């Protein structure tokens, strides 16, 4: 069998680039630059590649001539265009276009420039992964409707057909070479994750291969279904032989390797990538991590070189009725971290209705600290040795986070002391982090100044009842070393540490459990719009923050 050339995307060189593996197994970076590129799609003639790139801040579709290596941007939207797919005659592209309220599939005629919208997403709907059929008469895609993602295909004349059906769910469709079947990454309520194949009318659904890790980006070439799958250190690319049901590794190495694409018959040549030498761990604080909402992204935290994830444990969610526990959400956090080799920081927050005054919100502190102590003990017993640190509450110097009442450092300190004793009694090795202070300057309507609140905590006896001071020093568009008259900058950490030294507590570290800079967005971020920065500047600021911590702020133990 002849070797089959193929393309893939990888962050091997630090951003995102498109790579070609030729018939000899040689690997070439086609887009060796400092601009993120992803989603390669090889043209039917094999002489062009379409991909998504972010040279202008937003994501556009580009087409590169593989003979000249010249690329042209073919979409110019204010938003994000990605996941291109070629029509069989090479004259059109299908792609996803995402704006503030919609994520839909369009086609683009590369000759005339005419665009056609194929889908119209409504509330709780989104479309992804368009794949043109081999006969050019249909486009397959995944559609999320009411929170459920399924595989469909659309006749270009207008009729839609559903392939996967509840309880089976699916994403990343790939047509068989004869256009009669669709492969997709699937999962169902019976815990059968992996790669499925079905006839295009939805019949004869087969669970072809079991895959327990997240699977992405299917492409069907000859007898090989190419796909990427998560491992401990990132994504690698694999080939599933449809006839034999066997899987071989195609692309392995550090980082995220994704989006394989090929045309024709043959056997893809496996390659092992060699990454750049890792930067010294001494350049990072002892504790680095990421706040994540989607637990399926936990492996990405590890692949970035960080060792922690932060998530949340809602008392109201775990114990909605007194004595009746539902641990599913925090259990999932702990499991996701363990699978990815990460330590866990859990924030304890949200008071259930039965434990707070009638008519109050979930941010109201509990009416009885004895009841709170009982719950914290139950948490610590369940996760002893599994959760490395707990953050007690969130931004207690904000009125919103204190049940709509004026922030009260003495009352918060009383709660903190109870939590500290309860956690240490059940799990002495767990660290206790005070609720991250919002950087609020001298305070005002809806907030108490962070330095005043911290002094109030010490006056109420907080010293010795937290292993690290929690802080949320957002950047407000400024570099981390810059000062700002109202303290609205990352450098506010220095002032907070000075207060700790005043209280004789300078040896206790600070943990910045939330910190960041929002990036420019095509949709409104409200008050945050004026603080937005470019992706490049955001990356620079993060790097400077790590350097500042290493060189000047040894008391900043966690970011």
Please give a structural write-up.
This protein has 3 domains: 3-135 and 142-148 and 209-265, Neuraminidase (6 Propeller), CATH 2.120.10; 136-141 and 149-208, no CATH class; 288-558, Glycosidases (TIM Barrel), CATH 3.20.20.80. 16% of the residues lie in helices and 35% in strands. It contains 8 helices and 37 strands. The strands form 8 sheets. Strands 2, 3, 4, 21, 22, 23, 24, 25 and 27 form a 9-stranded mixed beta sheet that branches. The chain has an 8-stranded parallel beta sheet with strand order 28-29-30-31-32-35-36-37. Helix 4 links the parallel strand 30 and strand 31. Helix 5 crosses helix 6 (450-459). The two termini are 52 Å apart.
| Total helical elements | 8
Oligomer: single chain
Radius of gyration of CA atoms, rounded to a whole number: 26 Å
**Classification by helices and strands:** alpha/beta
CATH class of the largest domain: Alpha Beta
| Average pLDDT taken over every residue | 92
Percentage beta strand:
35-45%
Helix content: 10-25%
Q: Report the end-to-end length measured between terminal Cα atoms.
A: 52 Å
CATH names the topology of the largest domain as TIM Barrel
Uncertain stretches of 5 or more adjacent residues = 277-282
The strand count comes to 37
Shape from CA axes?
Answer: elongated
CATH architecture of the largest domain: Alpha-Beta Barrel
Main sheet record = 9 strands, mixed
**Which homologous superfamily in CATH is the superfamily of the largest domain?**
Glycosidases
Number of domains: 3
Short key terms for the protein model shown above:
alpha/beta; Neuraminidase; 559 residues; single chain; elongated; nine-stranded mixed β-sheet
